[in-house]
User: Fold Glycosyltransferase family 87 protein from Pseudonocardia aurantiaca.
Amino acid sequence: MLPNHLQLPPPRLLGRGLVLLVAAAALVTSVTFYVLDGSFVLTRLVSTDWKMHTDFETFWQSARALLEGRDIYETSAAVVNLNPPFASLVLAPLGWLDFWPAYRAFTLLCVALVVASMATVAGELRVRPAAAIMVTTAVLVSSPVLATLGLGQIYPLLMAGLTVAWVLGRRGHAVWAGAALGVVVALKPSLAPVLLLPLARRQWAVLTAAIGTGGLAALAGWFTAGWQSLPNWVLLVFDHPVQAYVDNASLVGTAQRLTTQSPGVDPLVELPGGAVIGLLLGLALVAVTTWTVRRPPAAGPDTGLWAMAGASLLASPLSWHNYLLLLMPGVLVLIVRGRWPIAALLLALSSIGMEWQWVWGAPAPAVAMSLYCGVLLAYWAALLQRPAARVDAEVVALPPAPGLPGQRTHVGV
Assistant:
């Protein structure tokens, strides 16, 4: 037996040290990019060139078309609108403003939604203010959030919807939790697998409310935008090819990138049907996730909803790395579970910006260009893991207030 001063640290301590070492490397990488070349996503955020805010320009053009009774999918926007008619209905008020006032108002709203989502989860879990502020700051300066704000994407709305559903589910408001999920799915149908969570847990009130609310929202958007809007949207979605661009973090896009020649990328191996392989892997991952989260955890806060959202993003044909912000409130849950090294790793990985792709030159190796898929997989795996029987959270969570229960009722979302 080795003397005490020569014995190796316990495996758990070694594991934490390794995780923190990788997190530090990711953070150093991000800082190096910024010092040497600045930040592309930050430059885009403050740019006064409307062409830099392409997604918002698409939404704004569709919103104006809706208000003027024109086809929301036939506009002069530089990028095609792949969102359902309901999204244009929600964003219709932006059409009353000129482009720049609308963009600034929408950006401020999105920042408020991100902060409110993080604050809501932190308050629900009674996370200490210092820890909550640090995590929220890391989220706000992350590449997915800055890129989302710069492009003018709707992901903060989805983030807020998932957060509302999670909080209402914890508090036992099944119908309202389901309604929030229904609105999220109506805005972004690729998130429909999240409805497998209440189905697997046999929470029929949640599932019925989600399907009913989502259906009514879809019908409202269809009715408002005109009868041709829904078939036009479906045709656009099915005509849109799977994109192997570095920013597509889904398994479908990654498999396409690894097996097919694409601009600036050297595939790992050339094979036919790469996207199909990725889709099958994604569907298998959704099935595994559904089975794993079929029961709420016996102790500690539940991350099943965010795990299902992560699986949905991985299985979708198109999931830009900006979608990652949907899962970021779950980082607070990991911290409360005592898994702060994993939380630090996830936040550090999220800080690596689009400059990653330019480091490798052209043609770049497809594996290196799939970093964001790896980050999304890391989030999914961390959120999928069930908590231990005892949650070690005294460092970051405040004790329950006198007279209040320490554990809320779970209804599954």
About this structure: The beta strands are 265-266, 364-365.
